[in-house]
Design brief:
transmembrane helix; single chain; globular; about 0% strand; membrane; mainly alpha
Length: about 290
Amino acid sequence: MSNFKKWLKAVFSEEFRTNSFSLKFPNTELFSESPWFPPALFIIYRLVVTSCCVIFTVESVYNTPSYLWLVQFDNWSISTVCLYFVLTTLLLIYYTTKTWRDNNIEKTKLDEPRAEKGCVDDEQGENESELLWAASEGGEEEDCEDKLPCYHKIVWLLQTIAANSILVVTFCYVLLEEQLNALVLSVYLSFSVFMIADAIFSFAPIRLLHVVYSYVFTLAYVFVVVGYYFVVVDSQMPGMPRFVNRIQGPFSSVMVSLILILGQPLFQMLYFTIHKLNCLAYFKYYGY
């Protein structure tokens, strides 16, 4: 129990630092690995989820075939989830095929010195030791080279925004919608389950302070809605966005404010906890 407390203290001390706002991470492989699935099975799973996301996103476009699609917060969220799974699935396929190709090349090098192989094994061990993402005593993470390409940073950013925004949409719909539509609710719940399951099945890191990017995403939507209102206020207004129409009266206003302001950090904490427990379970199960 004492070791768990030390680990927990190290994790949170590492999280609440200024560099935790950044999109820097030394290990790119963690964005395309699963601790529980072999690569081939993980690719199949991701392809199925991505296909569902694409179908639901296209369906949302057909349901609102005009510029009004752009002012619906649920469409923003669904599209972000879809884009995240498309990009992360392509990343997974790329790294898996690259790994298989590299392994085949290594098998042909029978004359490779054993000492060199030992160095490769040591490097792999160091990469695996980074999975807990806990603070090092000497502050080595600050000196680590930022090896994360721009593509990975975009995927990481989309992961945070999509994971939080879809829960915001789901909670607001369940709590504020007067007449729940079973099909719409199933779509929101499916996307929420997809993001939570992704936190369980993948090793992509999750940082608590990245919730600020979700706030920026929400604020951007507020600016779009305000701009939309002032642009069409003098013309025939076809209707306000669904998300805005659900805000009627003090109760709904308070609920939306709580979900947007206090709910998103709690959602981020949920994903963060899942990720850390996932890493801890992996280390306890495999012993490294």
